[in-house]
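Thread title: Can someone regenerate the structure for this chain?

I was given the following input by a collaborator and told the matching structure tokens would be attached. They weren't. Posting the sequence so someone can regenerate them.
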Amino acid sequence: VIIVLGMMLQGFAKAPRSSFCTTYVDANVKRKTQTGFYMGIVTTVAIMGPAVAFALGGLFTRIYVTLEETDMHFRHPKWIGAWWLGYITFGVAAVVFGIPIYFFPQRIKGGKTTLKEAQSK
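Best answer:
Regenerated them for you:
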């Protein structure tokens, strides 16, 4: 039940991303034929994100949970990987990449409409 509620919350939070992103890009490109190109870049990055996270998760499980050197091999049944390292790594990355996004203008210089105007059309 908790997982279902978490997935629903995640879906509600991520659903507006594609429509707002498309509207923002379309309202601020000079030639409307470039919107698809830029949205392709956004989609590619969104698809590659989970793949990179999965690969880094595999690397983090080869590090012992306390980050100390140990004589135990990572295939030993008592091995516990540093599962928590991914939360810290991607949390810091989200903050670092989110700060510049916070300063994006509502209208890019040379754009014709603001995001609010484009959404109301």
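Helices lie at 2-28, 35-60, 85-102, 115-120.
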